[in-house]
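Justification of computing resources. Each target in the renewal requires a structure prediction run like the one illustrated here; the chain below, 152 residues long, is used simply to show the kind of job we budget for.
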Amino acid sequence: MSASVSTSASASAAAPASVRYDLPEPDAFTEPYWAAAAEGRLLLRHCRDCSRTHHYPREFCPHCWSENVVWEQASGRATLYTWSVVHRNDLPPFGTRTPYAAAVVDLAEGPRMMTEIVDYEERALAIGMPLEVAFREAEGFRVAVFRPAPIA
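Resulting structure tokens:
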């Protein structure tokens, strides 16, 4: 799930505005993650040996090193761990999105995830606030972001 940066000679000659730093580079391993995101579902990796869930997707458990790891659908619930409202970013396409809230959230399943908060009022952001997953459309991809959860 790294940023998409082309290193070909033709791409390096392209105008800087054509480079995107927010697009994933799916591979055979991460394809289930991106296919689920396209359907509006967030998948996480879960270890069947130690019963812990992790994110970002890896083929082994970072807690016990087991390879007995499977994809599981996440609840989509999270709490805000920390954030920063970005008012300037010169990398395309982030400059057109400012201001935006870059964040780290604690997923209900346990792992922390770097993301963005959308549909928020800046003064309402607070550590520990409940969030729910949403998905941003970007050049044929749907990328997980989070928004404040409705108050029950």
